[in-house]
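Could you help me review a protein record that somebody else here produced? Here is the record exactly as it was handed to me:
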Amino acid sequence: MPKRPTTLMPPRATRRPPKSDADRLRNLVQRFVRSFGLLVTKETPCGQPLSPSYAHALMVLVERAREQTSTSQATLGVILGIDKSNVTRLCSRMEAAGHVRQERASDDGRSRLVSLTEPGKRLAQRIEQASQDRFNRIVVALPRRERSTVFQSLAALNAAIETLGEGGKEL
């Protein structure tokens, strides 16, 4: 008799149903994180060959450049929700790749300002387009009558997280 393939999920009868709204939320967020591709460290969810933190940093820098707002490493770290040592390493990698330049802030010699180079701007534009294409496909896949509910729910979830001070901080 051939052996049945094993699965990662236990048989349906032994799965524990969520006990609380917190369990249900955790399960749904975990499923989203996994299915969206957020655990892949060397590629963005839109298929670009960069870590998600690198791509997000590029997106922050391109947006702030459009607003003509300078960006320090510290500010970038707060917006991305990563600590000082991680933002320092990220900026160093981006600088070594030729995507950003860093310079000391004129008003504070300890602060480093980060800005996109021309190759960095081109890369950011490619990532932005790939991201826009992916989100367009997702929106089209959502039933039209459910879209506003999804948007409102995500906004409410972000607001709840921000009240806890656990990420999503904006300057």
